[in-house]
User: Which sequence fits this backbone?
């Protein structure tokens, strides 16, 4: 079981995340919803210790999660990556095996097999020798999904995986999520607009610095909850996503 | 024709010059490739200027310049990171202030300590005055950096492509960052005699950038970059010998000319030769991405 207790982030006096607590059982697909700047990315990063945390604990099974990072696959927002980087699809997915291979060792046949299976699953094998910058946004997202799969992790954290992707990619991502769920994995996925996919979730966390609601999508998506997350109107604010800008 | 190439080799100083040019021509594009893909190209220039105070002090105390220059280059890069992390100051402004201050401090120290540093050769290189100590120093630095890059290639690839992702799998990103600062500083020191600190940035960036327009993977960029680096260094040294121009600027001008040529005529990315429909759609895509980001 993954347990987050009283997790809080302050950045130069600005509150990024306000004492959030929740638990996730294996085999659960949990969504995070909130306006821009609500702390969705910050929470995912804070769980892994990627940003300085002012208080709180994140435990998985027997100990702190940040000591078991090899069991976590984290997929950052697409906007954090320089897509002009000179690297092929194949080698991006191969990065997943970096930790498992260990220092000084180069990937062998086993690693190649894992990478090939992951690329097959997201229907990207035919483009494996392409430079990553030559792909569409959706294809790039699928490559990152393949990289997460090739990590063979127990916990999957996705930061805005549906941002700017095509229908086909969206469908593939949702299928893969359900497969991982049925394998007993833990999935935590942030999204600023879930739309129709809301029904696929086991649980939804509504976030705006603090955790406003936690429950099944029907329980969470009430007018009162949304009012307190988004304020007066349901329109998302126009300012830039604070999470991405603060910590780059 | 052959005589033109072999005749200079009868002189010891030309042998030394070509030896150090080869080493620097291989080393700089490898380190430079990492700078380019991390959008840190100017950091090479900044650190190059930051080594001056350390040089002056090590001359004064009679210790190897490697120690002083290394210490002061690293100190400069740390100062930039510290200013940035402690305030709202952005990295470009922190870099501008730090490197000019270090440079000014270096010049002042040279005057105050009455160093016998030849400022001209420090700034612009003096490849025809290379000693065997210089060659050994450059050789050792090059070997160390190339071996480290080879050993940690997959970790460095992950780190430079996706730093957050690398941190998320538990790679020691602070140690890697320090390693890069150390490698850049050492590369600057290794290249000082060949091109000088003002122009070393060109050898770091030029050949690697030329390769960037021709290949699709980082290790290819390093390999091709190193080949180009050796070619332009040789060409620069010969030009310097026959035309009696300073060697540093000669190397840099050859390197930049080669880049310009590739920029125009690269089969996939040259502005005159790239496949037109692809580039039009690429432009559209880029525009779309820009709009999406702006939203």
Assistant:
């Amino acid at each position: 079981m993954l347990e987050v207790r009283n997790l809080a982030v302050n950045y130069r006096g600005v509150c990024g995340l306000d004492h959030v607590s929740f638990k996730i059982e294996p085999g659960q697909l949990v969504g995070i919803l909130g306006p821009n700047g609500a702390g969705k990315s910050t929470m995912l990063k804070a769980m892994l210790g990627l940003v300085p945390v002012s208080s709180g604990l994140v435990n998985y099974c027997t100990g702190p999660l940040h000591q078991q990072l090899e069991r976590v696959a984290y997929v950052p927002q697409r906007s954090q990556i320089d897509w002009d980087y000179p690297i092929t699809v194949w080698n991006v997915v191969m990065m997943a095996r970096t930790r498992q291979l260990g220092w000084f060792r180069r990937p062998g046949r086993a690693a190649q097999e894992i990478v090939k299976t992951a690329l097959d699953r997201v229907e990207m094998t035919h483009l494996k020798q392409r430079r990553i910058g030559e792909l569409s946004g959706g294809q790039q997202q699928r490559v990152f999904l393949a990289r997460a799969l090739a990590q063979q992790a127990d916990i999957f954290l996705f930061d805005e995986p549906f941002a700017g992707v095509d229908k086909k990619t969206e469908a593939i991502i949702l299928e893969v999520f359900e497969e991982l769920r049925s394998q007993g994995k833990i999935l935590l996925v942030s999204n600023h607009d879930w739309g129709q996919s809301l029904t696929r979730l086991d649980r939804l966390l509504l976030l705006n610095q603090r955790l406003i609601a936690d429950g099944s999508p029907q329980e969470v998506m009430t007018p009162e909850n949304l009012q307190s997350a988004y304020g007066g109107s349901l329109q998302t604010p126009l300012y830039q996503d604070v999470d991405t800008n603060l910590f780059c | 024709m052959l005589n033109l190439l072999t005749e200079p080799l009868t002189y010891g100083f030309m042998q030394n010059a070509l030896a150090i040019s080869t080493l620097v021509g291989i080393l700089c594009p490898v380190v430079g490739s990492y700078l380019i893909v991390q959008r840190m190209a100017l950091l090479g220039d900044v650190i190059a200027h930051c080594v001056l105070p350390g040089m002056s002090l090590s001359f004064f105390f009679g210790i190897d310049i490697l120690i002083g220059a290394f210490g002061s280059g690293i100190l400069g890069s740390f100062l930039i990171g510290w200013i940035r992390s402690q305030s709202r100051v952005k990295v470009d402004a922190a870099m501008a202030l730090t490197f000019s201050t270090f440079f000014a401090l270096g010049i002042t120290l040279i005057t105050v300590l009455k160093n016998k540093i030849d400022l001209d050769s420090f700034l612009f290189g003096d490849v025809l005055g290379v000693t065997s100590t210089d060659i050994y120093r450059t050789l050792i630095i090059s070997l160390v950096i190339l071996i480290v890059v080879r050993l940690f290639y997959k970790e460095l690839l992950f780190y430079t492509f996706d730093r957050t992702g690398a941190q998320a799998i538990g790679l020691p990103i602070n140690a890697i960052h320090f390693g890069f600062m150390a490698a850049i500083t050492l590369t600057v020191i290794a290249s000082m005699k060949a091109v000088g600190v003002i122009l070393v940035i060109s050898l770091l960036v030029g050949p690697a950038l030329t390769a960037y327009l021709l290949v699709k993977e980082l290790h290819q960029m390093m390999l091709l970059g190193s080949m180009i680096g050796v070619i332009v260094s040789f060409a620069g040294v010969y030009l310097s010998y026959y035309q009696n121009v300073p060697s540093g600027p000669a190397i840099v001008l050859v390197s930049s000319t080669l880049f310009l040529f590739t920029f125009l005529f690269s089969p996939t990315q040259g502005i005159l030769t790239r496949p037109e429909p692809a580039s039009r759609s690429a432009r559209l895509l880029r525009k779309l991405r820009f709009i999406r980001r702006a939203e």
About this structure: The longest strand of chain A covers residues 14-24. Chain A touches chain B at residues 45, 48, 50, 69-70, 72, 74-76, 79-82, 85-88, 91-92, 94-95, 98-99, 101, 103-104, 106-107, 131, 136-137, 151, 164 (CB under 8 Å).
